[in-house]
Amino acid sequence: MSVKRKSSRVNTGMKLVGIKTVDDQFKTAVAPLCESIAMRNKLEAALVEWQEECGLGPAGTIRQGIPTPPSSPSAGSETSRSQEVVPSFMIESDEKNFPVIIVNGQIPDQVQRTFQKLKVLIAHCVATLGHADNLLTKIEESIKHISESHNELAHLCLESGLKGQKATRAAENFTWNLRLAFCTLGG
Fold it and tell me: Do the Cβ atoms of 170 and 21 come closer than 8 Å?
C-alpha cells in the first residue's frame, strides 16, 4: 500500500469516486485506515531506533540485539566481587503474557540504553496488539458496506448523472479505494 507522508499528516491515497453515498462510505473507512497506518509507522520507527542502538541492520532480529553477558569474569579482587551484585537481566512475562525486562545489578550505559529502546519497542507492540482487533473490526465493517455498493455501482453512476468516461473513472477510483482498504487488512 502506497502511503504518502507530508510532515505529520498521513494520506491514505483514497480518491473521490464522485458519488456522494459511496464517497461517504470511504470517508468512514479512512479514519481507522489512518489510525492503523500511524500505529504501524510508530512501531516501525521504534524497531528501527532499537536496531540502530544495537548496531543491527534492517534484517537484524531481536535475538541478535539482546546483549549476551561476557562469559569470563572481569578482573578484580574476589572480595569486592562477592559483595557486588553481578549484572544480569531476565525476560519474563507479565500477567497478560507480554515480555518484561528485569535488570539486576549495575548494567553498562550502552546496554541500559539498548534495554530502554527495547522497552519502548515492547510498549509499542503491546499498544498495537491492544488496538488491532478494534481497528480491524472497523475496517472490515467499512469494507463490507463498500463491497455491497460495488454491485450497484453502475446504477449509482446513472443516478448521479455520471456517464461514459466519468462513469469509468468513478469505477476505477472505487476499485482503487477498495484495493487500498484490502491491502491494509492483508498487511
Answer: no
Amino acid at 162: L
Burial tier of 175 (Cβ tally within 10 Å: 0-12, 13-18, 19+) = middle
Tell the residue number behind the cell numbers 463491497, with chain if given.
147
Structural domain boundaries of the chain? Answer: 16-63+80-186
Any bridge partners for residue 92, and if so which? 100
Question: What is the torsion angle, in degrees rounded to the nearest 10, for the CA atoms of residue 163, residue 169, residue 175 and residue 180?
Answer: -150
Rounded to 10 degrees, what is the CA torsion of 11, 16, 20, 24? -20
Q: Which residue has the cell 469505477?
A: 171
**Do residues 166 and 18 lie in contact, with contact meaning Cβ atoms separated by under 8 Å?**
yes
CA 154 to chain centre: 36
pLDDT truncated to tens, each residue of the chain (187 aa)? 444 444 444 456 788 888 998 999 888 888 888 888 889 999 999 999 989 888 888 888 878 877 654 443 444 444 445 566 788 888 888 898 888 888 888 888 888 888 899 899 999 999 999 999 998 898 888 888 888 888 888 899 999 999 999 999 999 999 998 888 777 666 5
Whole-angstrom distance, CA of residue 118 vs CA of residue 20: 46
177 vs 187: CA distance, rounded Å: 16
